[in-house]
Each structure stands twice: as structure tokens, then as C-alpha cells.
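Researcher: We're teaching a course module on how sequence relates to structure. For the next exercise, students receive a sequence and then see the predicted structure as C-alpha cells, so they can try to spot secondary structure elements on their own. Here is the exercise chain.
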Amino acid sequence: MEHKDNRFKLLSEILAGIKILKLYAWEESFKDKLLDFRKKELSQIKRINLINAVGALCWLMASYLVIILHLRLFHFRSLGDNFFLGGGCFGSAK
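Model: And here is the predicted structure for the students to work with:
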């Protein structure tokens, strides 16, 4: 936000003093300053978006990870009991 405020402040100064800028041919130096502020602002926006994307990915993957871990743990625990095997399930029903 700070970079955006700085850029808007400089842009206001440029628009307020456009006649003086043209008179002394300061367009290039102010353009460079403005582009520098914009570059800093864009890098900050990219960093924030990357952090948001990683957070969203972790949030989405958490439920799948929990399901996979529970199923794997249940599978390893049930191997010793012969659970979910055809003969074991139907043999006990008789």
C-alpha cells in the first residue's frame, strides 16, 4: 500500500505541475520515478498473491491429506484382523 500511495502522490504532482515539467523537459526523470514506484508496487502485489496461492493450496490439500492418511492407517491396522476380506466377512455371518 505504501508504494501505491507514493505512486499516486507522484502522479498528482506530475499532473499539477505539467506546465513546469514540459517547460524544463523533466518528463523522462519523472517517468523513471513513476515507473520505479510502479515496479516496487507490482513486486509487492506478486509477493502477496504468491503467499495467498500457497495458503489456498495448503487449505485445499489438507482435506485430501487427512483422508489419505486415515485410509492408509486403517488399511494397515485392518490387515492383521483380516478385515474386508471376503472369507473373513462372510464366514463370520454364518
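Model: If you want an answer key for the exercise: The two ends are 72 Å apart (CA to CA). The chain has a mean pLDDT of 80.
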